[in-house]
């Protein structure tokens, strides 16, 4: 067993750290306030290869491994979780979904553009009444021979407004349950495909979240991913990898808040000494560091499982469950260590605390992760 990173991994991590410090940090508070993320930053992330990290270079990707992916995700998330969720969705849901399960024609047409950042993708599973209960899809895709007709609504879609390519899950045959669900590739601008207003959110406010509406959208059969009825398994398999990305995001949010708290505690004085010298603060730092390191081990293990070709359904669920808990608890502690300053935007920790909450909700709530883990344990 070797816990050290390779030289290449260190270079990749440092490049992401440098990008986050020089490009993402300036303006992060303003972007959070304005709920905006500029196209220029998306383009730069594309140029650095951050939008197709694990995609084969023959489809325009960077050809890196999952360890590299989580290192990049952690560094971006320390500074700007709105940027990192865009990276996570594009990489582990959209690009991975197409590369693993799309056919050659679909890869040439869509993946090559998504992997370079020429266009951005969105993954559309959640509905007003089907978030955790993902088999209860109300969006319908009626088979009309050479095409399908889609009707329904999707909620809380990351990259919802700015994406050009949408992977949409819909019910074709209700009587077949999870085996009657299909996954489709939709393009922005298809007649009947409408993008609703942007959501006003607690956290990751720079990220672009929308409701989507499908009214008799005609989708060619060639845009179905996999065989008829593969859509639910497609969603589950893809989300397993997505959860590694969100676990790494949660880890980065926690680590970012911890680093700020450590620095602040060495500068701020109270009762005649730096506050890190008070045991009340020192013990908080010890707990934060220990649990963040434990989260990092789980995230790395899940990424390693993916790289090894092992099943990672359980390890990704464990990583997301634990890292998101650590992110929520320790961003609260980071605000506490900052005292009054923690409550104002200038010190960044209040934003990280708001950003942490979503990691316990999206791509499967913490309760769903416990279902996945416990079912895995019982099945053996
Ligand atoms: N890989 C492959 N197949 C899978 C799978 C996986 N990871 N998970 C489930 N399946 C298969 C099952 O094997 C089953 O197939 P069979 O009918 O052939 O046995 C089928 O899919 C249905 O699975 P299951 O019966 O477990 O479905 P449930 O309705 O009980 O739901 C959970 C299972 C809760 C785990 C699933 O609905 C889920 O993950 N929900 C959360 C979805 C989510 O993350 N939402 C957030 C939106 S994305 S931001």
Automatic annotation (TrEMBL):
The lineage of its organism: Bacteria, Pseudomonadati, Bacteroidota, Flavobacteriia, Flavobacteriales. Coiled coil: none annotated. Residues 122-217 form the Acyl-CoA oxidase/dehydrogenase middle domain. PROSITE patterns: ACYL_COA_DH_1 (PS00072), ACYL_COA_DH_2 (PS00073). It comes from the Bacteria. It holds the Pfam family Acyl-CoA_dh_1. This is Cyclohex-1-ene-1-carbonyl-CoA dehydrogenase. One of its GO terms (molecular function) is acyl-CoA dehydrogenase activity. Its EC number is 1.3.8.10. It is an enzyme of class 1 (oxidoreductase). Residues 6-118 form the Acyl-CoA dehydrogenase/oxidase N-terminal domain. Its cofactor is FAD. Keywords: FAD, Flavoprotein, Oxidoreductase. Belongs to the acyl-CoA dehydrogenase family. Residues 231-377 form the Acyl-CoA dehydrogenase/oxidase C-terminal domain.
